[in-house]
Automatic annotation (TrEMBL):
Record protein name field: Adenylate kinase
Residues where AMP binds: T32, R37, D58, L59, V60, G86, F87, P88, R89, Q93, R134, R146
Span list, region NMP: 31-60
NCBIfam families xref list: PRK00279.1-3 (NF001381), PRK14527.1 (NF011100), PRK14528.1 (NF011101), PRK14531.1 (NF011104), PRK14532.1 (NF011105)
Domain notes: Consists of three domains, a large central CORE domain and two small peripheral domains, NMPbind and LID, which undergo movements during catalysis. The LID domain closes over the site of phosphoryl transfer upon ATP binding. Assembling and dissambling the active center during each catalytic cycle provides an effective means to prevent ATP hydrolysis.
Annotated gene: adk
Length: 190
């Protein structure tokens, strides 16, 4: 079983690459954003709970996020592995994920970070914002704020995985195919 955490700033290409990787390696793609939206839309018990926090503008507590993720893992008992996208975002979440996977005799195989220069990513998002309809992709100040938050919260997480020898940076600039090839080389070397 192969379990990968995919990191990257907004616009780095995580979603695009996750589509290729899940197909190529037969992984179940678990995007916390998608899981939140599904649970809220379908009015699940966890979705209702998450919504109470989101409606107040608060972050959904780790325990709620982790329960949603555990539920998704449990729905896929025959999976060959998981591709975690958007989770973990903090060391506490990484520790909780490690504990949960350990209870299933599994572990994170690798953490792969798509790295790219902020200026290139800002241009990508502003361009994407012209067609995506996402307001957070249309405001350069908001984009830069998202990067600042990513840097502050993700840096300790990178160190956490480096300490476990499970951190792999990958150049996220180039064609989709070139980046997919770089990611594949890392995965196939595991």
């Amino acid at each position: 079983m192969i379990n990968i955490v995919l990191f990257g700033k907004p616009g780095a290409g995580k979603g695009t690459q996750a589509e290729f990787l899940k197909g190529k390696y037969n992984l179940v793609h678990l995007s916390t954003g998608d899981i939140f939206r599904f649970n809220i839309k379908n009015d699940t018990e966890l979705g209702q709970l998450a919504k109470t926090f989101m409606d107040k503008g608060d972050l959904v507590p780790d325990e709620v996020t982790i329960k949603m993720l555990q539920s998704e893992v449990d729905k896929n008992p025959n999976a060959k592995g998981f591709l975690f996208d958007g989770f973990p975002r903090t060391i506490a979440q990484a520790e909780a994920l490690d504990a949960f996977l350990s209870s299933k005799q599994q572990e994170i195989t690798a953490t792969i970070a798509l790295e790219a220069d902020d200026e290139i990513l800002v241009e990508r998002l502003l361009e994407r914002g012209k067609t995506s309809g996402r307001p957070d992709d249309q405001d350069e100040e908001k984009i830069r704020n998202r990067y600042q938050e990513y840097n502050e919260k993700t840096a300790p997480l990178m160190d956490y995985y480096k300490g476990k020898n499970k951190f792999y940076p990958v150049n996220g600039i180039g064609s989709i195919e070139e980046i997919t090839e770089r990611l594949s080389k890392v995965i196939e070397s595991l």
